[in-house]
Amino acid sequence: MSATDAQHDVVVIGGGPGGYAAALYGAGIGLDAGLVESNIIGGTCLNVGCIPAKELLETAHVFRTVGHAAEFGVNSSAPTVDWSVTLTRKQKIVDQLVGGLKGLLKAKKVTVYDGTGSLGANHEIAVSGGESGDITITAGSVILAAGSQPRTIPGFEIDGKLVVTSDGMLSMQQLPASAVVIGGGAIGCEFASMMGDLGVEVTVLEALPQILAGCDPDATKAVERSFKKRGITTRSGVMVQGHTPDPGGAHTTVAFGEGETLDVELVVMSVGRRPYADLLGLDGTSVELDERGFVVADETCRTGEDGVWAVGDIINTPQLAHVAFAEGMLAIRDILGEDPTPLDHHGTPWCIYCHPEVAFAGHTEDSAKEAGFDVVTSKHSFIGNGRAKIVGDTDGIVKVIAERKPDGTGGRILGVHMVGPWVTEQLGQGYLAVNWEATVDDVAAFIQPHPTMSELFGETIMSLTGRSLHG
Ligand code: FAD
Ligand code: NAI
Q1: Which end of the chain is more exposed for a tag (fewer CB within 10 A), N or C?
Q2: In 1-114, which ranges are continuous DSSP H helix?
Q3: Other beta carbons within 10 Å of 65
Q4: Cross-strand partners of 203
């Protein structure tokens, strides 16, 4: 292919959720789309993120369930985990999804370039180092979707053996007997939960005063209580100093807090992810990076360079696959001149798949007060929910934060926070309520099917009307 032959309406650099959503959505509307990917289509999410992490959590779920089968009168011998089967299943699911995505891109006639994309002046993209050879392609519009990479902290070099990031964790050939997880955010809590359920002795070390920093503290407490019952230790407000591997290399001693140490087989580094603009070039363009390395973009994902957008983890918005999808589609709509409504990241749905699951949208109680709202809250526990009892999984709460009306009852719903069984599948109603700016009375009028876990959301809302059924 000669350099001048490759010209598209839109070229996307990076084939993760932000990039492939933009390419698929644009192609579906009739744009001639090109997609440049240096590694594996699907990006972090499909290959080393959401999908494999959730698969390992599902293995932990099955193990936990089988471990309690006798409570249901189902007798099974003591379960064990064959980790190699787990890894094979995880990879099979990843491969199927990556294969399906490749098929979709082909069906929608997206031209996929295998190589590293580097943007220069005049919307010229040099593609190099992959099966597509060294070529230059041009586009009317360009979308940067290069994603992010794991961070580490000084004193902890990632060696893939004693110290791993999520990338290494997801392909560990065997589980350790003991682990320290540094950083109690989304990745840290999901891996701690998974390993704890599979018998690993886990300690989470978090620098901030609480794990899962963005969550309402009542939700965090519910997670911590469940972790504690299952033998997973969480230590908040502690700084980690470094680690000293033992001479045999099978253990390492982690120093933290006021002279404390822990001897473990594995350190999992989950202290956040940095934007990955390293290979994007950008010379001769007006695309700017901020002091943390994020591509600077406005509310419709436009960068400083005319005709260049940036979406997903590479910009400073919530680092979530569904946010990347939404931004990819938003950028295409802007390219088409549709004047799209910017995303409201305050209302972004968050779902964290540790056990118990965590799901929320909108204000926490504190952030609502800080924003100047006079609030009223209601909190109910899954302990009294029929379906949760049947399933045998009653850890968790639903908390709703609403604007206080003069009579003390709830008005507009400001935030919905859930911890418990399948709450990641239950958040939908709360997400809509927050983002539709529904009131407590609006939502209380709807019927919740029985017996379902979602009755707890209905009950929590109803009690904000000043009336209640069970609570
Ligand atoms: P990425 O998915 O990182 O994709 C970027 C792609 O660009 C990569 O494939 C990369 O190879 C490619 N690339 C980079 N530079 C170039 C270049 N110069 N040329 C060509 N290609 C390039 N989010 C959720 O919403 N739910 C979850 O449950 C969840 N779980 C997660 C679990 C883990 C362990 C991790 C690590 C992340 C998780 N996330 C989750 C976050 C989610 O994976 C990211 O927010 C999402 O993948 C970001 O999408 P993206 O398209 O911006 O970037
Ligand atoms: P994070 O930002 O969620 O959490 C990192 C945690 O590490 C923070 O609580 C921070 O205070 C702590 N930390 C930082 N430096 C520290 C230090 N020196 N010592 C101790 N603690 C320290 O980042 P994480 O968990 O790495 O995940 C990255 C992103 O990936 C998330 O923010 C999220 O956007 C996404 N993700 C989403 C998931 C989901 O939606 N289910 C699951 C996993 C990741």
Answers
A1: N
A2: 17-29, 43-48, 50-67, 83-107
A3: 15
A4: 180, 233
Shortest-distance ligand to the CA of residue 51: 1
| 450 given a catalytic annotation | yes
Find the largest Cα–Cα distance for the chain.
Answer: 73
Phi, psi for residue 210 in degrees, rounded to 5: -140, 150
Residues near ligand 1 (Cβ within 6 A): 13-19, 36-39, 43-45, 49-50, 53, 116-117, 145-148, 166, 187, 276, 279-280, 312-314, 319-322, 324, 353
Which atom in ligand 2 lies closest to the alpha carbon of residue 213?
Answer: 9
What's the whole-number average pLDDT of the chain? 96
The answer, yes or no, to whether residue 18 has pLDDT greater than 70, is: yes
**How many other C-beta atoms can be found within 10 angstroms of the C-beta atom of residue 128?**
15
Region 449-469: mean pLDDT is 95
Place of tokens 């639903």: 398
Residue 2's pLDDT is what?
45
Q: Say which ligand is closest to the CA of 52.
A: 1
The number of beta carbons lying within 10 Å of the beta carbon of residue 143 is: 30
For the record, the structure tokens of 179 come out as 């682990």
Instruction: Transcribe 366-419 into DSSP letters.
Output: HHHHHTT--EEEEEEEGGG-HHHHHHT----EEEEEEEEPTTSSEEEEEEEEEE
Q: Which of 68, 345, 450, 470 is catalytic?
A: 450
pLDDT one-digit tens code per residue, 48-101: 999 999 999 999 999 999 999 999 999 988 899 999 999 999 999 999 999 999
pLDDT tens digits, one per residue of 29-61: 999 999 999 999 999 999 999 999 999 999 999
Give the CA distances from residue 34 to residues 64, 122, 390, in Å, rounded to whole numbers and listed in that order. 45, 16, 50
Q: Using the atom order of ligand 2, give the atom closest to the CA of residue 188.
A: 25
pLDDT in tens, 340-366: 999 999 999 999 999 999 999 999 999
Q: Give the Cα separation of 435 and 443 in Å (integer).
A: 13
Pairing mode, if any, of strands 124-128 and 163-164? unpaired
- Report the interhelical angle of 50-67 vs 83-107 (nearest 10°): 140
Give pLDDT tens digits for 199-257: 999 999 999 999 999 899 999 999 999 999 999 999 999 999 999 999 998 999 999 99
- CB 358, CB 212: distance < 8 Å: yes
According to DSSP, the β-strands at 240-245 and 233-236 are unpaired
- Domains defined for the chain, CATH in brackets: 6-150+274-345 (3.50.50.60), 163-271 (3.50.50.60), 356-463 (3.30.390.30)
pLDDT value at 269 more than 50: yes
Name the residue type at position 402. A
Q: For a substitution probing ligand 1, which of 11, 36, 39, 50 has the most ligand atoms within 8 Å of its CB? A: 50
